[in-house]
């Protein structure tokens, strides 16, 4: 579910930053009535590592304003 959302966002030209992935995971947790309030500090890094074959982390590049 989350992996599909992350990949679809990137395919549409809007790759998600780490904090956006964390927010989305927290929304899913709350929607599932989980006892956990939010994902842990390093959860996003571990998520990306688990799915490294499908995900790539890139540095954001500033757009030319000229």
UniProtKB/TrEMBL annotation:
InterPro entries: HTH_CenpB_DNA-bd_dom. Keywords: DNA-binding. Residues 1-57 form the HTH CENPB-type domain. GO terms for molecular function: DNA binding. This is HTH CENPB-type domain-containing protein. It comes from Sphaerobolus stellatus (strain SS14). The lineage of its organism: Eukaryota, Fungi, Dikarya, Basidiomycota, Agaricomycotina.
């Amino acid at each position: 579910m989350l992996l599909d959302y992350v990949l679809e966002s990137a395919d549409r030209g809007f790759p998600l930053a780490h904090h956006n992935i964390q927010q989305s995971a927290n929304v899913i947790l709350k929607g599932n009535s989980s006892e956990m309030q939010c994902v842990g500090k390093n959860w996003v890094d571990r998520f990306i590592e688990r799915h490294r074959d499908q995900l790539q982390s890139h540095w954001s590049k500033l757009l030319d304003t000229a």
